């Protein structure tokens, strides 16, 4: 599996990706708004889950690398929502990039390729995205992707503790029709 953008390759995971992913997951800034991967085993299990999800569904949060250098940059792609929520079942678009790659449009570029795959290849009717209500950077990515937000859709994440500041999540949506209108 491989998706190409002008600057990026979104591809299936390789064993050699586990170390740079684990290193990225140790960065407090990268993980500020994400559920922690506290150990190397947890980080490796996250990658193994993506590999399994790809095998079962034909998509996952793919490994992202630079086309120019081949450097591992993070993970971006599509994932079946794996918890009970008012909007599930659903497929979400998600991203997590190593800090050196922030602020350069890589998340938007990779997410657009993922959305194109989702809408044009597997013919999804809608894709969602969610993030902590405090995660301004991810909310900007969602807006740049043309996703719509209705505060009535915001929710408390069932896998996050009641006392955790990440509990409250914004939900954004993008329909295939809205995607097609953006692309025309």
Automatic annotation (TrEMBL):
User: What residue stretches are annotated with the N-acetyltransferase domain?
Assistant: 7-147
Q: Per the database entry, which stretches of residues form a coiled coil? A: none
Name the domain of life this protein comes from: Bacteria
List GO molecular-function terms, semicolon-separated. Answer: acyltransferase activity, transferring groups other than amino-acyl groups
In terms of Gene3D superfamilies, this protein maps to: 3.40.630.30
Tell me which UniProt keywords the record has, alphabetically: Transferase
Signal peptide (from-to): none
InterPro entries noted in UniProt: Acyl_CoA_acyltransferase, GNAT_dom, N-acetyltransferase
- Per its UniProt record, what PANTHER family does this chain match? GNAT FAMILY, PUTATIVE (AFU_ORTHOLOGUE AFUA_3G00765)-RELATED-RELATED (PTHR43792), N-ACETYLTRANSFERASE DOMAIN-CONTAINING PROTEIN (PTHR43792:SF1)
What protein name is recorded for this chain?
GCN5 family acetyltransferase
Organism from which the protein derives: Bradyrhizobium lablabi
| Taxonomic lineage | Bacteria, Pseudomonadati, Pseudomonadota, Alphaproteobacteria, Hyphomicrobiales
